[in-house]
């Protein structure tokens, strides 16, 4: 795929992640993630930062770090149907934290496209040092 065509698809999938983030259970920070099969462009999973299955769509607490919400990347990776020999890209509205970066390194994701930065750059560094292609793109803020 040409880089211009790839960039257009990257913008599309990142916009999908942004739209998904609007359904987040955490009012403090809405994050969305989309996992895509690199071979055929199929979306295989979508995640938001939210509570576990069957739990109310509201945070446990408004205190930072105490919302009880799993991160969008965690939810998307847990929902993905991995097929052997395939590689995937994850699109995330915000840069993955160090824990999410470790999870991403342990699945067949070889490319990460994210929008906004994260206060701790360790996750990005870990993914780059782990051999992943990591790309930052501007995410649309249209409502």
UniProtKB/TrEMBL annotation:
Active-site residues, Swiss-Prot/TrEMBL: 73
Any one annotated GO CC term: cytoplasm
GO biological process: pyrimidine nucleotide metabolic process
Entry-linked Gene3D superfamilies: Cytidine Deaminase, domain 2
UniProt domain CMP/dCMP-type deaminase: residue ranges: 8-135
Family: Belongs to the cytidine and deoxycytidylate deaminase family.
Protein name, entry field: Deoxycytidylate deaminase
């Amino acid at each position: 795929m040409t880089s211009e065509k790839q960039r257009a698809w990257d913008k599309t999938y990142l916009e999908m992640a942004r739209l998904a983030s609007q359904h987040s259970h955490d009012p403090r920070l809405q994050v969305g993630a989309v996992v895509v099969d690199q071979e055929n462009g199929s979306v295989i999973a979508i995640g938001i930062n939210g509570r576990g299955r069957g739990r109310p769509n509201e945070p446990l607490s408004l205190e930072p770090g105490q919302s009880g919400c799993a991160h969008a990347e965690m939810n998307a990776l847990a929902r993905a149907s991995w097929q052997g020999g395939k590689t995937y890209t994850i699109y995330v509205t915000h840069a993955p934290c160090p824990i999410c970066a470790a999870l991403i390194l342990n699945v067949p994701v070889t490319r990460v496209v994210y929008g906004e930065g994260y206060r701790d750059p360790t996750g990005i560094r870990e993914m780059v040092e782990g051999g992943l292609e990591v790309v930052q793109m501007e995410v649309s803020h249209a409502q």
